[in-house]
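Researcher: Please translate sequence to structure tokens.
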Amino acid sequence: VSRESSITAAASYLVLEVESSGVTFMVLRNSNLYFNHFHGWAEITEEIGGKQITDQTFRDYLVKEIEKVLNFYSSKWGGSVDGIILAAANAAEELEKYLKDNFPVTVVRLAPASFPTFSPAWFSVLGSALRGLLPRSEDVFLSLTAESVQMKYREARVMQFSNFWRNVGVTVTLFMLILFAIGYLFLAREAQSLKIQAQGAAATQEAVELAGLEAKAKAFNELVAVDAKAVQVSMDWPVLLTKINDLSAGTVTLTKITVTNRLVNLFGVALNTEAIFGFRDRLNHEAKFEAVDLPLRNIKDRPDGSADFSIVFHLKEGAF
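Model: Translation complete:
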């Protein structure tokens, strides 16, 4: 904000960030962060009485929360903020106009001068990248810790050095213990072998064969048990994967599939959000699937219009 925009560093601002995970309210004074509060979409839904979030209910919620922050600012520092900084990936123009109509302060849409085409979803990554280019000795920007960035960097290097030699010590110690254990087992086995050889002259051939048969029978029973367990957890994977691929209808591309105790988690990329909802509806109509869940927070828009998503559903008992 301080380096890439026309915002005055010495002024005070209310920063409003609207993103896919929720809404964040921040107060900046003299380029320092004095207040930060995040509201997830689930929390916002509860605060508006469990109703569906529409444009109007969301705007009413914003006005209510902004008034709370402004009252907090006035009671702590007096007066009001110099402006509102808006960072929103969607409907930014409508939100900007609505804020200007309801609050008598300057409303600025955050748009870094060096990267005017960047979506607000990339601002945190862009800020981290720009800050990462600075030498740690010159990093004097905002930090949420009580100590400076330089001090934290020094402590981190000391901890890395200590952890390295601790790991070396632990590794050497474990290696020596394993070496001693192997030597002990080898000597114990040799002693047992010598003992058996000493007693073997007195043992009959029938006893030796009986012991061998008992050992083979035990090993066979163990193999049977393992095979039975494997049969119980087996699943017709080709049929399941073919069914899921057919339901994708070419509008989504699956990148990862995990199955745990009949719980299936699908990850993929769709042409757009409509394709994701269509895929969810087709899964819902499949008789062998149940409890299909597509949380809105699992949909991540991409700059090119496509979207990442993840869907969870259960396989019915005996379906595959």
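Researcher: Any highlights?
Model: The first strand starts at residue 12 and ends at 19.
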